[in-house]
TrEMBL record, chain A:
It comes from Drosophila lebanonensis (Fruit fly). CDD domains: STKc_CDK4_6_like (cd07838). It is an enzyme of class 2 (transferase). Pfam families: Pkinase. Its EC number is 2.7.11.22. Belongs to the protein kinase superfamily. CMGC Ser/Thr protein kinase family. CDC2/CDKX subfamily. It catalyses: L-seryl-[protein] + ATP = O-phospho-L-seryl-[protein] + ADP + H(+); L-threonyl-[protein] + ATP = O-phospho-L-threonyl-[protein] + ADP + H(+). This is cyclin-dependent kinase.
UniProtKB/TrEMBL annotation, chain B:
Keywords: Cell cycle, Cell division, Cyclin, Mitosis, Nucleus, Transcription, Transcription regulation. This is Cyclin-K. InterPro entries: Cyclin-like_dom (IPR013763), Cyclin-like_sf (IPR036915), Cyclin/Ssn8 (IPR043198), Cyclin_N (IPR006671). Residues 293-304 have a biased composition (Pro residues). Residues 279-288 have a biased composition (Polar residues). Regulatory subunit of cyclin-dependent kinases that mediates activation of target kinases. Plays a role in transcriptional regulation via its role in regulating the phosphorylation of the C-terminal domain (CTD) of the large subunit of RNA polymerase II (POLR2A). Gene3D superfamilies: Cyclin-like. One of its GO terms (biological process) is regulation of transcription by RNA polymerase II. Its main location: nucleus. It comes from Drosophila lebanonensis (Fruit fly). GO terms for cellular component: nucleus. It comes from the Eukaryota. Pfam families: Cyclin_N (PF00134), CycT2-like_C (PF21797). Residues 35-129, 142-240 form the Cyclin-like domain.
Length: 306, 396
């Protein structure tokens, strides 16, 4: 509950924590009040270690990128109001990313749905907005890496906005040792297997979220890393020997044999096009996953939803 | 989004001015800081974008802080340090300080305190907060090249004009135009100036539309001639050294920022510091052409030659307009009342060097026009007035 105060030059950086909104893989997000104007904001806090050469270049580059991104004013991305910093007692630098706050996220939205569920039209629109936002991030070389319904905010006009991006790289290198409980449900298999990954991790997560809109429950609600992988393999099939990463100690035989299935087998309400799109997005092989732009060009988005 | 552009009134009410620094002194500090960043950066092999980014940070920083509280060369080092990282051309903090030490004399280096690196590091966070993490800055160079690519006409003349405009952009960093106008507009203004001075009139350009009266209508809108001339004036004023400037007491803040809690006592300092002396160092009115010159612009791609570069009534009219416009530029400072030119006052930080050895008898290069540019029209009294009629001895 302690107010953040900017140490340096008295410029406005005067926020008061209200409560923790979420602890993501890459930082803790607080709901806070801007004491200068009473506005409610969402603040992502990231602590960084100062190096021999001050604020690390990667952090500066990332903040710079976020600022440029913000200048584009994309309708499916939350607005970044400002960036503040202050020095903590232990000599670490706390960076605050102050974002627009929206009351509702997609997980609240799904929870509060009437029994009839979401209309097909709404699912298609949310999916399109999600992928449009992801495409925008990717076109600015930003990988979100932690897409989940809690990070997708719904505006009062019912539009979807991606939140909680930024400083993922900074967070990665500086805070890896912090053990935070993070949901595994939207994680791509290559991340779970600690393999090299790229922007296609976001495509995986987007597919999980789209399926959840149809199902009104999570597609792969894993309970552990292993269980998460096993649930994934239930859809993709257990990877072949040649597909199994060589650089990992976990043995392939540790997982039961699975044959590939269709997304429709998990979610019978999927239309034919949605089934095809999701099966591509949920490819085990990251090279087979379409880009966000390619997803948006898929027939699913060209059709009136049934 | 924070706005980084200020009107003239705001530029007369800066923290430094409110803190008792005169308008002229503040402008001199800004110029010195900018030139120091350019010199430091050039010595370290940094590119023009990194240096320009550092200079823009510097100017923005002093829209929030007083030169009395933050010694300008420490700030300048910090701006260059941060710009290096942002532009992905990082330099180690201690290397920047080492370079600064080679440029500044010991008296001046006092402002870096006992632990210069720590001073710069501490300032980095203050700088980041002050410039609100708006790290990405665009510069006129980009637009200069972009616009020039579209110009049709004599390639040699075009190249020369671009080189001249490029140098003007370098020099414009010593003014506050980057706090007043977008880089696109500065680029237009300085191309305009260079095209007049190099007698390369842009008569035709790629992508020309019937609605375009002037070439820049294609790139910027709502830019009046007054704005362009204001920018040109500010840059040209750099070549007008004034005696007043040289005689002013030097009252640089001497305390490192970590101990800058009380305003520096300028009177005491001005007694302690050596009085300004003419130095033998590069006359920075020719900045951009000295040995410390930033690299020249990359060559332009070939443009198709102009097919109507000849004489037609419109061209003649344009020519006439140009002359009138140059006259109007010149008329702001009547030639008769121009103060006598003193040399070297632009490179004020050199004043803190120990006096150089006795001067060789060689004459000093005129401040403007630089020897390169023999193409300056002879009838331009304003510019010629900046050229001393006779070589001046360095020590009088």
């Amino acid at each position: 509950m302690s107010p953040f105060k900017s140490a340096s030059d008295g410029s406005p950086c005067n926020y008061e924590n209200i409560h923790v909104i979420g602890t993501g893989a890459y930082g803790t997000v607080y709901k806070a009040r801007d004491n200068t104007n009473g506005r409610i904001v969402a603040i992502k806090k990231v602590r960084i270690a100062l190096t021999e050469n001050g604020v690390p270049m990667s952090t500066l580059r990332e903040i710079s990128l976020l600022k440029q991104l913000n200048a584009c004013d994309h309708s499916n991305i939350v607005k970044l109001f400002e960036v503040c910093q202050f020095l903590e007692r232990d000599g670490k630098l706390m960076i605050l990313l102050v974002f627009e706050y929206l009351e509702q996220d997609l997980s609240d939205y799904i929870e509060n749905l009437p029994k009839s569920g979401v209309s097909r039209t709404t699912i298609q629109r949310f999916s399109r907005e999600l992928l449009t936002g992801v495409d925008f991030l990717h076109s600015h070389r930003i990988i979100h890496r932690d897409l989940k319904p809690q990070n997708l905010l719904i505006s009062s006009q019912g539009h979807l906005k991606i939140a909680d991006f930024g400083l993922a790289k900074t967070y990665d290198s500086e805070m890896k040792l912090t053990s935070v409980v993070v949901t595994l449900w939207y994680r791509a298999p290559e991340v779970l297997l600690a393999q090299p990954y790229n922007s296609s991790v976001d495509i995986w997560s987007a597919a999980c979220i789209m399926a959840e809109l149809f199902m009104r429950k999570a597609l792969f609600p894993g309970t552990s890393d292993k269980n998460q992988l096993d649930r994934i393999f239930e859809l993709t099939g257990r990877p072949g020997v040649d597909q199994w990463p060589k650089t990992i100690s976990v043995s392939r035989e540790y997982f039961p044999m699975r044959h590939p299935k269709r997304p429709r087998d998990f979610c019978p309400t999927l239309c034919e096009y949605a089934d095809d799109l999701l099966s591509q997005m949920l490819s085990y092989d990251i090279r087979l996953r379409p880009s966000a732009l390619a997803c948006l060009e898929h027939e699913y988005f060209q059709q009136e939803p049934l | 989004m924070p706005c980084w552009y200020y009107d003239k009134k705001e530029l007369r009410e800066t923290p430094s001015i409110l803190d008792g620094v005169t308008f002229e002194t503040e402008r001199r500090y800004r110029k010195e800081g900018a030139r120091f960043i350019m010199e430091c950066g050039t010595k370290m092999g940094l590119g023009h974008n990194t240096m320009a980014t550092g200079v823009v940070y510097f100017h923005r920083f002093y829209m929030f802080h007083s030169f009395k509280s933050f010694p300008r060369y420490v700030t300048a080092c910090c701006c260059l340090f941060l710009a290096g990282k942002v532009e992905e051309t990082p330099k180690k903090c201690r290397d920047i300080i080492k370079t600064a030490r080679g440029i500044l004399n010991d008296n001046y280096f006092v402002s870096f305190g006992e632990d210069p690196k720590e001073e710069v590091m501490t300032l980095e966070r203050i700088l980041l907060q002050t410039i609100k993490f708006d790290l990405q800055v665009e510069h006129p160079y980009t637009f200069l090249l972009k616009y020039a690519k579209c110009f049709k006409g004599d390639q040699q003349k075009l190249q020369k004009m671009v080189q001249m405009a490029w140098n003007f952009v370098n020099d414009s960093l010593s003014t506050v135009v980057c706090l007043q106008w977008e880089p696109e507009i500065i680029a237009v203004a300085l191309i305009h100036l260079a095209s007049k001075l190099s007698k390369f009139t842009v008569l035709d350009w790629l992508g020309r539309q019937p609605s375009h009266q002037r070439w820049w209508d294609m790139f910027v809108s709502d830019v009046t001639m007054e704005i362009l001339e204001d920018i040109c004036h500010q840059v040209l004023d750099l070549y007008q050294s004034t005696q007043k400037e040289g005689q002013e007491p030097n009252s640089p803040p001497q305390k490192p920022p970590s101990r800058a809690d009380s305003p520096t006592n300028n009177k005491v300092l001005s007694l302690l510091l050596p009085l300004p002396q003419n130095s033998s160092i590069v006359d920075s009115t020719t900045l951009g052409k000295t040995k410390a010159a930033p690299p020249p612009p990359p060559p332009l791609p070939a443009c198709p030659p102009s097919d109507n570069g000849g004489l037609n009534p419109n061209n003649a009219a344009a020519e006439l307009n140009n002359i009138q416009s140059i006259k109007s530029l010149a008329s702001a400072v009547p030639v008769e009342t121009l103060p006598p030119v003193t040399l070297n006052t632009n490179a004020n930080y050199h004043m803190y060097h120990a006096p150089p050895p006795p001067p060789p008898p060689a004459p000093i290069a005129p401040p403007y026009p630089p020897p390169h540019y023999t193409a300056v029209p002879p009838n331009m009294g304003y510019y010629n007035a900046g050229r001393p009629q006779q070589p001046q001895p360095r020590y009088q």
